[in-house]
From TrEMBL:
Keywords for the protein's UniProt record, in alphabetical order: Membrane, Transmembrane, Transmembrane helix
Protein name: DUF418 domain-containing protein
InterPro entries in the record: Bact_Transport_Assoc, DUF418
Transmembrane segments: 21-40, 60-85, 97-115, 121-136, 143-167, 207-228, 248-266, 278-303, 323-347, 353-372
Key word Membrane present: yes
Domain DUF418 per the UniProt entry, residue ranges: 229-391
A Pfam family per the record: DUF418
Amino acid sequence: MNHQPTLGQRRIELLDIFRGFAVFGIFVVNIEVMNCVFANQDSYNQQWTSDVDLLAIRIFQLFFYTKFFPIFSFLFGLGISMQALKLHSKNQFTFSFLSRRMLVLFIFGVLHIVLLWPGDVIHLYAILGLFTILLIRASNTFILCLSILLFVFPFYDQIAEFLFNIFDYDPMYYLRDYPSDKIVTTIRNGSYIEGLVLRVMDYLSNLPMLLSILAPIALSMFLLGLYFGKNQLIYSIKEWIIRIKIPMLSIVIVSNVYRILFLFILPSTAMYREFHPFFIKTMVISDTIMGLFYLWLIAWCYYHSATLKRFLSPLRHVGRMALTNYIMHSGIGLILFSSVGLSLYQTLSPSELLLAAILVFGVQIILSKLWLSYFQFGPLEWIWRCLTYKKVFSIRK
């Protein structure tokens, strides 16, 4: 079937603002891991005791951790559903077309891991996107119930451990030759090829976390985005955000009370040590709710304040090039932290990392706006489109 893209269709500005905001939040979290592997975060942060660094750590904990990955996933699922609905309305919907789109994205993700950074999520999105596509014709009730079930299910760790034991998969095996000091030395002073090998080993070491923690959240949010898109709620979002105002504010107050207890009070109790997995799962749920609240708050500000709308509007430039800007973050991280560039790995304080993320994102807003004044798509978005449609499109306006 000859698929044709909807090149001239008017974009939904709020969705691009959502995407730009999600890209920013993902980078704020990722830059910490780029500077210091996740397993060493707590010990690394303990050396920073100034007021400004302690404040930066609290900002990361309270406003960023585990909140933007669900947003990114929700928007991806929403994007899949909106494209599928457009194709369906033109009698052009085929699994082969959308699966090819996911295949190209998967290749992008694998190259991202090998060449730039092992913390890629878009290869996971591509795999889960195929499953989401299969459910595009399922009933709205089934999609919503499955999303909620996947979200609250508490035994992913146990299932993952069982499966990895069956296949005799030991994640520590892959980093057995990389004690902490060698990781630092390899990233700061090693060759690019040595860094490449470490990236692959690091990815394989973290695969259980990817499959048992991130994958269920991503799939749940994909399905929520699919539900949102199938019901075309994005086109009535102004009215919808008003209807859910009281429930949303109530839920976010309760979740934030729990988050404060989790961060500052519960860890010192015997109950926390006894029921640690339960408290962790509840924290993930709380953070996800907070992330979705961010989207509600942005939408409310967008429609109810002209000043705030103008303030939020520049995010749309980054959002229109979300894939390019997401991958660009890893290139910038490679330059900042590895021997390819400045070799700053495990040298920047939490406050310096936060400032660096804000500055980089500010530059991305400017560059994205400049690029889009001459071109229709971001460079990676253009490549993705051409490979998906098997046709070379003009990139210039």
